[in-house]
Amino acid sequence: MRADETLPPIAPGGYPVIGHTLPFLRDRLGFLQQLRAHGPLVRVAVGPKSVTVVNSPDLIHQMLTAQAGYFSKGMLFEKLKLFGSNALPVAEGSRHLTRRRLMQPAFHRERVSHYARTMRDTATAAISTWKEGDELDLKTETQLMAQSIVMSTAFSAHPEPHTARAILTSVDTLFTAALRRALLPVPLLDKLPTRYNRRLARAGDILHQAVTGIITDHRTRPGDYDDVVSMLLDARDETGAPLPDEEILSEVTGLLAAGSETAAVVMAWLFHELGRHADLEARLHTEVDTVLAEEELTADHLPRLTFTRALVQETLRLYSPGWLVTRQAIDTVQLGGYTLPTGTDLLWSPYTLHRDAALYPEPWRFDPDRWLPDRPQPPKHAYIPFGAGKRQCLGDAFAWTEMTIITALIASRWQLRPAPGIRPRPVGAITVHPSVLRMRAEARQNSAIRETV
Fold it and tell me: Which domains, and CATH codes, for the chain?
């Protein structure tokens, strides 16, 4: 097709139609994976709208970098404004650039290294509550752990267990609603006083109250804190005025939501895979015991935990949390020889990209050794678990550090065994969740790490 031509309309019997097919309703991830066979760009339908699916890693990179100015974040991120209409993850244009520059120092690599001790102590406190033989809902456990880490490092907050669970439930409720509204948009239903919408409003209220309490405490005792909340309270806009309360609330809420989700599901999947691969688990235990050598884990240990990091890297590939990322053309743009008119909705999937057999040998196999330097590496732009370009995840260094620390700490003390009869499958929620993941905790003998709390 020539560059001056637009994508063809959906023809009967042509491209699959999302939202009107049982395969998509049953298996969102599998349906998107099948679309990769249709070429670099595929037009499908989501409810009443048509969407262009971008499969090519080169075109995805082009869209996220050189041509990023032609696209807004699109339909999913518009619905994520449930967490705050002006927060960094959903901000556009100059507001996004200004807010990113404001938040960047809190996630600089040196500052993240400073967080390592708090991450360690927070995770250690969580896993110290486990008992021999406990059957754990591992996704919930890792979500609570990740939520506690972001709250302790970024907000200096330590909610009681019942409050933490209420916050997590609220975050899950709002994420579910955002995805549902993006995939099956029925704006009228969003405004009706249905039971679902009342539950959604309650979830928003719980989250709002929790975050407001954190901000109020920082304002009451400003000299006691040096964290993201205090940074936002001290910030000034281009006129020298402090940020409006609503914007501070949005930023803190958005960060709390993001910090409760991505790293948590990756950790759940990682230990699921270790439960299936005793040889990899043994290698992890050997590395952790050798590197820590009965010392408390610190940031200085992290560069030597090379196999631990490879396990995280491979889990991010096979179970990439982002299965659905959206964009919308805000001007007519050329992409891969096609003309995309203004208003074109696009989506791409890190999950299906990272499982493409044309890019990764044996893509379904969990193989952390594929990241060894002497092994063939995937093509450039084919591994982007945190995105690329000006909207690459601001917290990627934070997440890498957090996931490495959690993996090492759990491995130093526990072996997690699959509960009988449990066979988790990936589910396309706001991230790639395990359908169910229960694992039995077995204490390791001669644990190589001392108590830290």
Answer: 22-443 (1.10.630.10)
Dist CA 46 CA 244 (whole Å): 37
DSSP 34-48: HHGGG-SEEEEEETT
Q: Are 178 and 153 in contact (CB under 8 A)?
A: no
Average pLDDT over residues 358-386: 93
Q: Return d(Cα 336, Cα 43) in angstroms, integer.
A: 14
Average pLDDT over residues 9-16: 41
d(CA 410, CA 307): 15
The encoded tokens of residue 383 equal 């591994």
Q: Which amino acid is at 174?
A: L
Q: What is the pLDDT of residues 386-416, one digit of tens each?
A: 998 888 888 899 999 999 999 999 999 999 9
Neighbour tally for 21: CB within 10 Å? 13
d(CA 172, CA 203): 9
Question: How far, in Å, CA of 330 to CA of 12, rounded?
Answer: 29
Phi then psi for residue 162, to 5 deg, are: -65, -35
* CA–CA dist 250, 263 (Å, integer): 21
| Integer Cα distance of 280 and 338 in angstroms | 45
How far is Cα 183 from Cα 192, in angstroms, rounded to an integer?
19
DSSP code for 271: H
309-356 pLDDT, tens per residue? 999 999 999 999 988 898 999 999 999 888 899 999 899 999 999 999
| Tokens coding 387 | 């995105």
Q: What is the pTM of this model?
A: 0.90
DSSP 115-182: HHHHHHHHHHHHHTT--TT-EEEHHHHHHHHHHHHHHHHHS-----HHHHHHHHHHHHHHHHHHHHHH
The whole-angstrom separation of Cα 248 and Cα 219 is 12
Phi, psi of 135 (to 5 degrees): -100, 110
177: CB partners within 8 A, 6+ apart: 79, 82, 196, 200
CA distances 115 to 263, 411, 453, Å, are 16, 20, 16
Question: Could you give the angle at the alpha carbon of 243 between the alpha carbons of 238 and 245, nearest 5°?
Answer: 160
Q: Give the CA radius of gyration of the chain.
A: 22
